[in-house]
Amino acid sequence: xxxxxxxxxxxxxxxxxxxxxxxxxxxxxxxxxxxxxxxxxxxxxxxxxxxxxxxxxxxxxxxxxxxxxxxxxxxxxxxxxxxxxxxxxxxxxxxxxxxxxxxxxxxxxxxxxxxxxxxxxxxxxxxxxxxxxxxxxxxxxxxxxxxxxxxxxxxxxxxxxxxxxxxxxxxxxxxxxxxxxxxxxxxxxxxxxxxxxxxxxxxxxxxxxxxxxxxxxxxxxxxxxxxxxxxxxxxxxxxxxxxxxxxxxxxxxxxxxxxxxxxxxxxxxxxxxxxxxxxxxxxxxxxxxxxxxxxxxxxxxxxxxxxxxxxxxxxxxxxxxxxxxxxxxxxxxxxxxxxxxxxxxxxxxxxxxxxxxxxxxxxxxxxxxxxxxxxxxxxxxxxxxxxxxxxxxxxxxxxxxxxxxxxxxxxxxxxxxxxxxxxxxxxxxxxxxxxxxxxxxxxxxxxxxxxxxxxxxxxxxxxxxxxxxxxxxxxxxxxxxxx
Amino acid sequence: xxxxxxxxxxxxxxxxxxxxxxxxxxxxxxxxxxxxxxxxxxxxxxxxxxxxxxxxxxxxxxxxxxxxxxxxxxxxxxxxxxxxxxxxxxxxxxxxxxxxxxxxxxxxxxxxxxxxxxxxxxxxxxxxxxxxxxxxxxxxxxxxxxxxxxxxxxxxxxxxxxxxxxxxxxxxxxxxxxxxxxxxxxxxxxxxxxxxxxxxxxxxxxxxxxxxxxxxxxxxxxxxxxxxxxxxxxxxxxxxxxxxxxxxxxxxxxxxxxxxxxxxxxxxxxxxxxxxxxxxxxxxxxxxxxxxxxxxxxxxxxxxxxxxxxxxxxxxxxxxxxxxxxxxxxxxxxxxxxxxxxxxxxxxxxxxxxxxxxxxxxxxxxxxxxxxxxxxxxxxxxxxxxxxxxxxxxxxxxxxxxxxxxxxxxxxxxxxxxxxxxxxxxxxxxxxxxxxxxxxxxxxxxxxxxxxxxxxxxxxxxxxxxxxxxxxxxxxxxxxxxx
Amino acid sequence: xxxxxxxxxxxxxxxxxxxxxxxxxxxxxxxxxxxxxxxxxxxxxxxxxxxxxxxxxxxxxxxxxxxxxxxxxxxxxxxxxxxxxxxxxxxxxxxxxxxxxxxxxxxxxxxxxxxxxxxxxxxxxxxxxxxxxxxxxxxxxxxxxxxxxxxxxxxxxxxxxxxxxxxxxxxxxxxxxxxxxxxxxxxxxxxxxxxxxxxxxxxxxxxxxxxxxxxxxxxxxxxxxxxxxxxxxxxxxxxxxxxxxxxxxxxxxxxxxxxxxxxxxxxxxxxxxxxxxxxxxxxxxxxxxxxxxxxxxxxxxxxxxxxxxxxxxxxxxxxxxxxxxxxxxxxxxxxxxxxxxxxxxxxxxxxxxxxxxxxxxxxxxxxxxxxxxxxxxxxxxxxxxxxxxxxxxxxxxxxxxxxxxxxxxxxxxxxxxxxxxxxxxxxxxxxxxxxxxxxxxxxxxxxxxxxxxxxxxxxxxxxxxxxxxxxxxxxxxxxxxxx
Amino acid sequence: xxxxxxxxxxxxxxxxxxxxxxxxxxxxxxxxxxxxxxxxxxxxxxxxxxxxxxxxxxxxxxxxxxxxxxxxxxxxxxxxxxxxxxxxxxxxxxxxxxxxxxxxxxxxxxxxxxxxxxxxxxxxxxxxxxxxxxxxxxxxxxxxxxxxxxxxxxxxxxxxxxxxxxxxxxxxxxxxxxxxxxxxxxxxxxxxxxxxxxxxxxxxxxxxxxxxxxxxxxxxxxxxxxxxxxxxxxxxxxxxxxxxxxxxxxxxxxxxxxxxxxxxxxxxxxxxxxxxxxxxxxxxxxxxxxxxxxxxxxxxxxxxxxxxxxxxxxxxxxxxxxxxxxxxxxxxxxxxxxxxxxxxxxxxxxxxxxxxxxxxxxxxxxxxxxxxxxxxxxxxxxxxxxxxxxxxxxxxxxxxxxxxxxxxxxxxxxxxxxxxxxxxxxxxxxxxxxxxxxxxxxxxxxxxxxxxxxxxxxxxxxxxxxxxxxxxxxxxxxxxxxx
Lengths: 483, 483, 483, 483
Ligand SMILES: [Zn+2]
Ligand SMILES: [Zn+2]
Ligand SMILES: [Zn+2]
Ligand SMILES: [Zn+2]
Ligand SMILES: [Zn+2]
Ligand SMILES: [Zn+2]
Ligand SMILES: [Zn+2]
Ligand SMILES: [Zn+2]
Fold this sequence. Notes:
Dihydropyrimidinase (chains A, B, C, D), Hydantoinase/dihydroPyrase (chains A, B, C, D), alpha/beta, binds zinc ion, globular, homotetramer, metal-binding (chains A, B, C, D), 20% strand, EC 3.5.2.2 (chains A, B, C, D), hydrolase (chains A, B, C, D), TIM Barrel
């Protein structure tokens, strides 16, 4: 049974044109005028775009004996409600745990997903076992490895471990990711703030100033350059980090930066709210920054020095947030955003003219599809591509509110924001998953998306590094001389 | 009668995949496996890419009572021989001449073209007539206006003229281009050099150091920002200019930079050659720079801070160059490059790993097609696009030489360079125009490509500028107060 | 009759130490412990510092048929009341007027000065006469030449005039100064704003955004570099201009920037005041900027990328400001500041820890004395130096108010600011000129300070430029070859 | 018995003027014309400048069971021969060794010094004992603490140790120094190079590219900023590190950079010499860089973004260097330079016009005297200052050669360089220590120079950091709200 999206305007990272889209067996089989199918989806007045890809989520993430509140069921439900059709979550081995073992746990959790998903594998410790299993992980369809430069004593790895893992990525044709904050300094600043009686949620922001993020970004870039591998910097939140990325790019280094929708639209004043809950609910790492940093991030999206807008969706309820009353370091780090990413970005980006519609598609979907090597299966409106599509109504409006959201938690950091531009329909592999304000697919519809290593950028960089590698000086009779 | 390109690998700015390409009536009508057509073109072992677009040529350009030696016939012949299927030339009104009048002259010259072409219109003086005719020019399919900040006393316009013309571009949805060198300073430096006895071709390079280019680029960017319009900087040759572009981009400004293949691969040492002819033949503006500037340009291509590789093809014979014996300011400015741009960029860029194949397509074709608003008619391998294609043999090699070139002149600035990667076939709107080392199409095959104003970037910028425009403070009883 | 300053702490750009200062015949004749003199000045609890030098004033400046309201009498009275013991004013030839003729007018006006003074000579047009008179001007003790890149149709000179004048400065060992704003663009923006009904004082700010200042600074730096001469940029008000200066310095260029006390402490919100008079009184060029720009300027003072704090004192009464009701371009440009510069800088700079006391002396006095080649006659506490001194009471406070100021005008842009740190005594060549809250010297006490060209920096730069000057390639038999 | 330096021109960081200098009991007691003393030193045709201060030496430094070959005797002899009158050496505790214990060892070694000296104390490990002894060390007259970010497994400290020590410096009013290279990455690169058969001296350069220095500099700056303390970066050798320093300064941070005379005048091609000995003798960390880095360093000296020229004098004989045949990591790191620093800088800096004579004095003596808080006892030509002076003959020339040098080793990295500008006399506390090409003072003449903490810059920074410290948000009833 075929399906056709009629009367819409297709908007991709490249193009804007009127055409219908014919779908069969989960794939786009034809694009053109006046197509016919067994079932019609009306896109009159709408844009038909590649479904969003959020490359940065933490669903049902283990934390202090509990879990982040949105799991693969509610999380992907929120995703689809907001036009996102694929999420990439982080498999996090406990220190000492094997990568494949951790992967098994993530495989189990993800069975409930409403939309397609993939995983990044985190490198949280280093050993010969980890080195060996990295290869097996790539064979399992994971070509990205995440590294934490913060969370000292837990997930953090140090510089020689980074180098070793990055080097291994280079061999495997995989791409390393970093959470870039200087964990040593964050720990010292946190201890000092607590000692000084700065224990409220604003202390979290004080303990992670832009400088510590900029420094770690700069360091990771250098290490990646030495290891001969591209680098993807998650949640780039500030000018300092963005500056390090731009500086690297101006030297021809291959680095991508990922601002979050939260950092683009919310600022540090949230932490100074008199209401502890309000502030604590916004606690995430890196914290929100000021307006100057926001301007920097928007400029990055327009100019291409930043590539992807993500959410770092990691939802904790108010109850969970209150673990940190009296000690901000115990407030679980994370906020929601999966449902709001695309409407917020459209409203604050496209409606204002800061970015074009095509750039919107690029930063919400196509760019990351290319980086992750799943383009054009995902991120494209092309014959042969998965029919992960969003029918976007640019005139639809709503006021964001926790009361009406999909997420399992009891608040929303964008509460009260008016957005213009919303999905009318979201399709996951050809199935209408979001329509009439409701999720239409059962849990478990989502499938794992395998991703091969060896992207063109990775290969080109290896060629260049080989060409310019250090060569020994030829000498005879060493040493050869007197004074 | 249909034509099919068989057994090749399609390489676009986005994608690399095996597929055949079916062509009818000058357009791509199908892309897929195992296609059949009336005529077969064998692409075994080859890449099938969008034909190159060179947005910067001067064919049969009037100069000191004569003309640049390559006209639309020999110039487009050279283009096709090198895989380029479209050129954009500059219509240059004499001071006082109307735009439409100048256009007529270019229309006449271009009737001999072997491949498709379009025009940029130059604004070489300012008046109400020029203001008015700019609109008519856009209606004639020209959405780009060129401005010379150098060539004082001839083509140069000053800052208020730039502002007025840029403002007019903003109204029309057109994009201004600049030749960015400070003409006043070039004139002063030239006079001083001649007075000091520095009259050889190296004096040309001394008279146009990177600083004067960087300054003018920076100035044009500011003026475009004030006028609320994007900017395209032609022949970005140096770090100073590239830096100004990067700085603009980091503030969210819409600016593109265009390095030339000459600046990417040749350096200033050419001007110090003991042979006057050798040096004079390399005289162009801006002049070749040193290796550090080359590294900067390559990094710009890899990182996206520079967008397009062009040639500024403007060929003068040795005889013409010798007009400047004893006075470098009389050496006609310009070099060839149309036939060599793509093989040189492939050899020094793709083969070395500095850029990927997809980036090669982007910077030789797709990016400029988008900027000029002719994508996907040009610059794409998509159903419905013009079949301007190149079948690229990555294993083919040759040594560049004037003896075997298409260009009408008697030397080649790349003489002796070994290139690897050459067109096996070049197709212009479905016609095989280059095969077996020979041009197959008659002159006059080329058609004018009309380009509409109002690109998405132009519109988005206007929206943002309107949103952030100065607003008057509301006051009553002005003035209202004492001390 | 000798005078001794007892019990104070000497603070110079270099040093902080307890010592007395013995003065005779207008000069410091001894520095040390327990000195004795005919007259004692008590400096207990105070710092004894070099008197301030304000290198940027416009006293009794002709304007639209009237004059700026503070003349050399009231202006230098204000200076002394604020600890400043020397001012440098600008001699402004009308277009077509000879330099020496203009100088005569300034000589006349300055006879009423209470403190020492010198002149910069403005180059407001270009001719052989100007070229020739520049030499005579230097022989008259003026080694600095000012150039306006704004005020189109009045004072503005264009790029080839800048180059010619800068080149002449290089020959004479003099230093060019620039008022850096793009006058063409300011004129265009002003016209557009007025046409759009933006005629209030805020329109002045809108018409001169940081970009137009940054651009002109960048351009002047390039031209100075080409001419082989250092450059002094007056009233550096923004990050854009400061960035251009830093970028030049990072290439070894000799450039100084001069922020004004107004730009360091007041911001653009002043122009949005509902009271027209309030806003109009703050109209000056460049206009006040936002807080980010202020941070940039303060960082420049601390790091040394900016060198001097001045005032651009050019006072117009409210009545004069009202010439511009209904048309901001008619509001006379200028504010006061002579009396407030040092207390404001101490309060916002030294008291906060942004700069040290020694840096305070450097930026208010010593640096400019060196740049202007009057060090150590001025700007020093050294034996042999002029006894231009301020006895600074760091505990004294006041609230700035027009009611108690020396300036002739009826308001003060710093009205209501609390300052801590004030002169107890100000000495001009050994004469106590300010004490007990009153001026003690008669008008006419001030003398012209002659300044020789040929500073060490100027000489070093000439040496380097000569060493690296373009050299012709030696060739025989030109042209020498075939293909 | 008094001594007078007659007929010279005094050159300081500020001033150039003709005057005689009268000396008694090791101090300057008068400066002026026509002075008389018991003994006359003829300075006709010469400049009389503050003696040089080299803040970076390693004399008799323990290494692999042996010691660097120049001890305090030969090292200070070389210093005086080159116009340097004070050295600052590094006391290096072994891991686990107390600071005071280490100091004792350095006290012992230094008894043989010919000129005055002081120490920096290195923090090579961290503990409560170290924390406590830092205070005692400052009481012993040492206000600077050195930290190694490289030499993993030996001297290197990690980020939290850096933070703790920097924080301690802030409390004590002391200044931290860093050797900035990423030790983890250097170790990894070294291992890889050796594994790849890159074992020659050029491997040393390959293992420490500019990136690893730039990264560490950037990191140290961030940590110092967080700890609220200024930072001094030793041996700044490259643009990457200089860029990090400039970027910090542009944000108002207090950071100084110290290029070495070697990096200013020698380049990486030395390591590619076919003679193993030649290359190995140049092995130091950081290694020599290319010409672009040299240009960056020179621009830093001219513009003030770099502050001090030092040597890192650490001399190893060819025999010692040969420990590393077959394994570059075993080549002792270090070169000489004490005798050559000032003549080389004069020749390549002052003679060329890159810096002025006054800037020469600033970067060889006065700036570091201020930073180290020994100004004006050292680094000045002022009454009351130590008579550490050099009578500099700008016309004297020589060819640098190991055969005629003071240093104990058998080669000189500047071998064959022609220098113009040499000390005629060097005076240490009024004693003629170098004259007629020979050392005149006995060993042991040198005295320890105590240096107090609490410099003005340190205090100002603390004030600012306190003013802008994080403040808790006042909240009642925490948590306070529902959704
Ligand atoms: Zn994270
Ligand atoms: Zn995360
Ligand atoms: Zn051009
Ligand atoms: Zn051109
Ligand atoms: Zn001005
Ligand atoms: Zn002024
Ligand atoms: Zn070191
Ligand atoms: Zn050292």
